[in-house]
Write a sequence for this structure.
């Protein structure tokens, strides 16, 4: 770090950006891990259906499979965009 | 009792073969009879890193197919006692690598009294990588402090927890430890590189060692001599520490901070 860099505007360090991005993507990929193979496709098709009616992001549909005392729960989360 | 160790990473070019060579050599140096197997069918390179490329006559696929017996396939290292190399085949037919075939080879090595079998996995998550990991008792996950490598390592950890024989038999996850390679303390200190703590936190596994970015690694591969044999080098010493930890010794992690600069360097250095 040279003396001149103190005079320049501070940019966010790239390592912390990397860490944040990794934490998010890794958490997302872990959530689908170990679930049935059809989950990604189910998510994709649900997204297509929702998009027929509401314009939503790629991340708007979240599908998760949980196991609780012998029964499986399919958890479905759809985030709709805020109304203009 | 033979221990089978897979050296894996998902991503290519992060140092799996360098690590496999160093780990196997370090174990053999400590008197443990060790074989290191190259699973990268079609792209063999362990022979070059170990410096035995001109002594390859038979390979893993030859041994599996019965064209050669195990003793003919194994190359005995000329520098270190108790160290053997089983090279991969250059044939493009990856289907030759069957689980039954590999199991037979591993059983043969056990009968020979190997204490450690190091499986150098190919990159990716295809059949070759799955085959290398399947019989493992333990894993070393090689990772660079860089986003794609960390993500791929996490992916591999997921695969290790479900696709090994132990996992299939319900014996649970095999122990997996992190080896962080190409680490540059200067760049970590200036905020340009993920720190060892960052990577540990994201992957949530135990740390086996940190290998600093070092000219010695390229020199070693140029010469065909595992970098752990270069006792003067930082990377060689870091690998030696890692092997000691692998065997249960407690050793302080070294080479995690940059050499301190003087006042002049701090004012005007990059």
């Amino acid at each position: 770090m040279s003396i001149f860099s103190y005079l320049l505007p501070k940019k966010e360090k790239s390592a912390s950006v990397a860490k944040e991005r990794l934490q998010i993507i890794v958490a997302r990929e872990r959530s689908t891990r170990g679930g049935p193979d059809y989950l990604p496709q189910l998510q994709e098709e649900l997204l297509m259906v929702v998009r027929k009616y509401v314009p939503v992001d790629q991340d708007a549909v979240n599908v998760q499979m949980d196991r609780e005392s012998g029964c499986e729960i399919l958890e479905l989360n759809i985030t709709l965009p805020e109304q203009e | 009792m033979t221990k089978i160790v897979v050296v894996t990473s998902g991503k290519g070019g992060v140092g799996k073969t360098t690590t496999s060579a160093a780990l196997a050599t370090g174990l053999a140096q400590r008197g443990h009879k060790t074989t290191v197997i190259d699973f990268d069918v079609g792209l063999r390179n362990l022979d070059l890193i170990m410096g035995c490329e001109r002594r390859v006559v038979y390979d893993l696929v030859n041994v599996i197919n019965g064209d050669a017996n195990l003793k003919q396939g194994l190359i005995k290292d000329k520098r270190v006692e108790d160290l053997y190399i089983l090279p991969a085949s250059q044939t493009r037919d990856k289907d030759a690598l069957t689980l039954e075939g590999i199991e037979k080879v591993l059983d043969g090595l056990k009968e020979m009294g190997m204490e450690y079998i190091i499986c150098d996995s190919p990159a990716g998550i295809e059949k070759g990588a799955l085959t290398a990991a399947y019989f493992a008792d333990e894993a070393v996950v090689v990772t660079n402090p860089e986003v794609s490598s960390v993500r791929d390592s996490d992916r591999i950890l997921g695969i290790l927890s479900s696709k090994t024989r132990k996992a299939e038999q319900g014996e649970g996850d095999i122990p997996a430890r992190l080896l962080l390679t190409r680490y540059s303390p200067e760049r970590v200190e200036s905020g340009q590189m993920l720190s060892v703590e960052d990577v540990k936190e994201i992957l949530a596994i135990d740390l086996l060692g940190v290998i600093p970015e070092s000219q010695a690694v390229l020199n070693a591969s140029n010469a065909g001599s595992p970098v752990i044999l270069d006792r003067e080098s930082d990377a060689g010493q870091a690998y030696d520490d890692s092997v000691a930890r692998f065997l249960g010794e407690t050793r302080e992690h070294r080479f995690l901070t940059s050499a301190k600069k003087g006042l002049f360097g701090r004012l005007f250095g990059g």
